[in-house]
Specification:
Keywords: Signal, Transport. This protein is α/β, with parallel strands linked by helices and 466 residues long. The chain folds into 2 domains: 247 residues, 3-Layer(aba) Sandwich (D-Maltodextrin-Binding Protein, domain 2), CATH 3.40.190.10; 209 residues, D-Maltodextrin-Binding Protein, domain 2 (3-Layer(aba) Sandwich), CATH 3.40.190. Helix content is 40%, strand content 13%. Strands 1, 2, 3, 6, 11 and 12 form a 6-stranded mixed β-sheet that branches. It has a 4-stranded mixed β-sheet with strand order 8-9-7-10.
Length: 466
């Protein structure tokens, strides 16, 4: 699935950045095309084109787009650009590649960069801008204004480097979910917990029945361990709050700060508790050898009785359920929001997403950036994705245009004015930590029962000096 491939790709990208290979020596060229509007826009008087008529007539112009999103997921994106072409006359030349993370720097280095790329990692964007300051184009004012209007302040921060805004958000995912079987909960009279204490009390109640309350898996090939990092990040947001989380991610606080020790011990109260885990697989150490794609399946097995009741995993886990599994509040499986621990910390939401990054300042590129960042594209993309799998934090997204129940739940969480959103911490850390020691040491913490302090000390020792 794409989430796994993206994780692996980010590790590759981090290596390329550290090697100084990404986008080397490539800034805006002198032949990017016109940068000023001319002619009468084809979108004059057409609904949905209001923000694009300022770019004039772009008929005959093309915007090249490079991304890791390939068939069959690419078609909804292609369909979502139809309104853009109708409004401007320009065409989007879409190219998806499974080798996106390795081929992007090669193409730029050889003088064949795309006009726009969808970058899945804020940390990579930061490295590109800081190491090669002319490679990425600053976002036009219209794009900046759109993000101010349609997104929370946190989202703009992730596309900003050294106080300069470059990349508006594209898609989002919510990681603060607990999957469960509504039927099993209803049959047993179990209520959805709304606080952490209620969730632990429910876990004890379930364990008393002989069923394991939790199942989990952190296996992911070369990226084994990343689901455990999500657990720590989600809990730290709930125990330490957003400020502590931000300081930890940026290394203003050491990785082994007492606040992080407390958070990881809290995670251990679930993941290293044999009374709670690992339903369907073994003792808690089996979490390290269980593929994350399989981790939640014992909640709703195709045959037989469920072997666990809850599984913490992101919205994108919806794609892992066996064919025929129905997702919904009264269906085979659904998910509830991972409850807060400290009410003073509000309603923390851990998530991820992709960002629209330009390597050209041509007028057609500016127009596409404006379209994607505004209020029209998200609804076009939602309508073009009838089978689900699209989530955005854009406030203008009409939830009626979001197809699947879990996607709707994700949008509701992201649009909650009380939500405190934070991006996946490992995606923001230096590659040798976020896609290296963090994954490795969390795997040892579970698979080898390595103690909390040693685990965090080892990661702290791996943090690069500069």
């Amino acid at each position: 699935m794409r989430s796994r491939n993206t994780r692996r790709g980010m590790a590759v990208a981090a290596v390329l950045v550290s090697a100084g290979l990404v986008l080397a020596g490539c800034g805006g060229s002198d032949d990017d095309g016109d940068t000023e509007a001319s002619g009468t826009s084809p979108g004059e008087g057409k609904a949905g084109c209001e923000q694009l008529t300022q770019f004039g007539d772009l008929t005959g112009k093309e915007v090249t787009l490079y991304t890791s999103i390939v068939a069959p997921e690419d078609q909804p994106y292609k369909d979502s650009f139809k309104l853009f072409s109708d409004c401007t006359g320009a065409e989007v030349v879409y190219e998806g590649s499974k080798e996106f993370e390795t081929q992007l720097p090669v193409r730029v280095e050889t003088g064949n960069p795309p006009d726009i790329a969808f970058i899945p990692q804020p940390g990579l964007l930061q490295s590109l801008v800081r190491d090669y300051p002319d490679a990425v184009k600053e976002a036009p004012q219209e794009v900046s204004d759109n993000v101010d209007e349609f997104y929370g302040e946190d989202w703009k921060t992730y596309g900003t480097v050294d106080d300069v805004f470059y990349a508006p958000p594209l898609t989002a995912n919510v990681k603060s979910f607990v999957w469960y079987s509504p039927k099993v909960f209803a049959d047993n009279g179990w209520a959805i917990p709304t606080t952490w204490d209620e969730m632990l009390a429910l876990s004890d109640e379930i364990a008393a029945t002989g069923m394991k309350p939790w199942c989990a898996g952190i296996g992911s090939g070369e990226a084994t361990g990343w689901p455990a990092t999500d657990w720590l990040e989600d809990v730290l947001l709930r125990t330490g709050g957003a400020d502590v989380y931000d300081q930890w991610v940026s290394h203003e606080l050491p990785f082994n700060d007492p606040a992080v020790v407390e958070a990881l011990d809290t995670v251990g109260g679930i993941l290293k508790n044999d009374d709670y885990v690992n339903g369907g697989f073994g003792d808690f150490k089996s979490i390290a050898s269980t593929e994350f794609t399989d981790g939640g399946l014992p909640i709703a097995p195709e045959k037989g009785e469920p072997e666990c009741a809850m599984h913490r995993q992101a919205s994108f886990y919806a794609a892992n359920w066996p064919e025929g599994t129905e997702i919904g509040e009264d269906k085979d499986v659904f998910a509830f929001y991972l409850p807060p621990i400290d009410p003073a910390q509000g309603s923390p939401v851990l998530g991820g997403g992709e960002f629209v990054t330009a390597f050209s300042d041509s007028i057609q590129t500016q127009a596409l950036m404006t379209y994607i960042s505004g209020g029209e594209w998200v609804n076009e993309k939602g309508k073009a994705t009838p089978n689900g799998g699209f989530v955005s934090a854009n406030k203008n997204l009409d939830i009626a245009n979001v197809a699947s129940p879990i996607d709707k739940a994700s949008v509701e969480i992201l649009q909650n004015p009380d939500a405190v959103f934070r991006f996946d911490g490992s995606d923001l850390m230096p590659g040798e930590v976020g896609a290296g020691s963090f994954w490795k040491e969390m795997t040892a913490w579970i698979g080898e029962d390595q103690d909390t302090q040693s685990t965090l000390d080892n990661i702290e020792d791996s943090w690069p000096e500069s």
